[in-house]
Design a protein that fits this description.
The complex is a heterodimer.
Chain A (H helix, E strand, L loop, with lengths): L1 H5 L3 H29 L18 H6 L2 H4 L4 H14 L16 H17 L6 E6 L2 E6 L3 E5 L9 E4 L2 E5 L4 E3 L9 E12 L3 E7 L4 E7 L2 E12 L6 H13 L1
Antiparallel strand pairs in A: 1-2, 1-5, 3-10, 4-7, 5-6, 7-10, 8-9
Chain B lengths: L7 E2 L16 E8 L7 H9 L1 H7 L4 E6 L6 E6 L4 E5 L5 H13 L7 E2 L3 E2 L39 H11 L1
Parallel strand pairs in B: 1-6, 2-3
Antiparallel strand pairs in B: 2-4, 4-5
Helix pairs in contact in B: 1-3
The chains are: A alpha+beta, B alpha/beta.
């Protein structure tokens, strides 16, 4: 309800945005700086007193407002998106996908995909696969790296279960957020387990005789994608759903 | 600091290894040690206690023992692509030597360098690489501009003024 009533304010809010946001940040940053001045540094250097910290109290007090409120375009965009998701300022999201209201069209699309599956015309498939927080766009025959300790041994065959999307030359199936296990199957083999090259971790602070030098190597696992398989789509899904909804209502 | 200072390379899957059948890329391992020097005692422990487990688990890997007098202990691994990797095993416990031999077994012979990208494909595009005319109507090639239909303002949605006008009309 809040979303719908606020829509008339949408345009107004957007126009005022560049002026409103900096003021809001300015006020809260000033509050932060006051707090840090009052509070003594407990147990050594606090966050605000470390050199190079953009938001340190010295900089805040000295610098002009334009310097202090440094926000990138990406952060602003992210905030707008978050507010849209929360429905705070009541902005209706632009629709990326038009839902298929025409049921006949939907069945046509699924029939076409199933036909090409039967005939074997589907061709090369790609899949977007989620492993350990990282997504990869993957086809048969390509190699992926999984960072850090990965339990499977060299030569093991895996099935990558979290598939976000699958597609071929003429179609794409996009999950919300994942596709079901009965629909897609992505097989991979562990091909190699190595270490990374020697990476340097070097910390230096000038005029403080503070430096650390540390070499480290991360563990990598290479997966080779063996195959991507798509099952036949259910053509009568809408009817089944409608039936189940009727049953629930009864 | 230039691009070429730190050696880097794309990922390689040696001869499409996992696609048909996985083949262990380690061809042979040589354990080099001294029979008498105390520096090689961990290596000698490893050879007595752990080495045979490794050979039994990996019958496809050839294992050599090379006693070298007055020299420190080391492992030399040779891979199917012809590359050779040597690692010194001084002051390394037998468990650590086990881990390093296991590491050599898991590797392909490719040299360890900074990887440019964490994936590699031979076929990056399944639906065709986008070009500006991909989803455009080819009729625009024949139209004369300015075209009133193409220049018309697109309807985006209900604006605040529309909403207000509706409210007024209701009353």
């Amino acid at each position: 309800m809040a979303v719908k009533t606020c829509t008339q304010a949408m345009n107004v809010w957007l126009r005022l945005q560049p002026y409103l946001l900096p003021c809001k940040e300015l006020s809260c940053l000033r509050q932060l700086s006051q707090y840090s001045q009052r509070r003594s540094n407990v147990g050594g250097a606090s966050l605000h007193s470390l050199p190079g910290n953009r938001f340190s109290s010295e900089l805040l007090s000295a610098a002009s407002p334009s310097l202090v409120c440094f926000r990138t375009k990406s952060t602003r965009k992210a905030d707008v998106k978050i507010s849209m998701d929360l429905g705070v300022c009541g902005i209706e999201r632009l629709e990326d996908f038009t839902p298929l209201s025409d049921e006949n069209l939907q069945t046509d699309v699924t029939c076409q995909i199933n036909q090409s599956l039967e005939q074997g015309d589907i061709g090369r498939l790609y899949a977007i696969v989620h492993i350990r927080g990282i997504q990869h766009k993957v086809t048969t025959g390509d190699v992926i790296v999984v960072k850090y300790d990965f339990p499977p041994n060299v030569g093991d065959c895996l099935r990558l279960e979290k598939v976000l999307a699958v597609g071929g030359k003429d179609f794409s199936l996009i999950g919300q957020p994942l596709l079901s296990r009965n629909l897609v199957r992505v097989d991979a083999t562990v091909v190699e387990k190595t270490l990374s090259h020697n990476r340097v971790w070097f910390v230096f602070q000038k005029r403080r005789s503070f430096k650390k030098f540390f070499l480290y190597r991360e563990m990598f696992t290479m997966l080779a994608i063996n195959s991507i398989q798509v099952a036949k789509l259910p053509e009568q899904k809408m009817e089944l759903e409608a039936q189940s909804i009727q049953q629930l209502e009864e | 600091m230039s691009n070429n200072a730190i050696p880097r390379d794309f990922l390689k899957n040696v001869l499409q290894n996992g696609m048909g059948r996985y083949v262990c890329q380690l061809q042979r391992i040589t354990f080099r040690f001294c029979k008498s020097h105390p520096g090689s005692r961990h290596m000698r422990d490893f050879i007595e206690n752990h080495m045979l487990d490794f050979t039994q688990k990996n019958p496809g890997v050839v294992v050599y023992l090379q006693p070298r007098r007055h020299r420190p202990p080391s492992i030399v691994a040779e891979f199917l692509n012809g590359r050779r990797e040597m690692m010194e095993m001084i002051d390394k416990e037998p468990e650590e030597i086990c881990k390093w031999t296991e590491h050599m077994r898991g590797r392909s012979g490719v040299q360890i360098v900074n990887m440019i990208r964490n994936n590699h494909t031979e076929t990056p595009s399944t639906q065709g690489i986008w070009h500006p005319f991909m989803f455009r109507d080819s009729e625009t090639a024949l139209t004369k501009f300015p075209n009133p239909q193409l220049s018309a303002v697109k309807q985006t949605g209900k604006t605040a003024t529309d909403y207000l006008l509706e409210e007024v009309e209701k009353k």
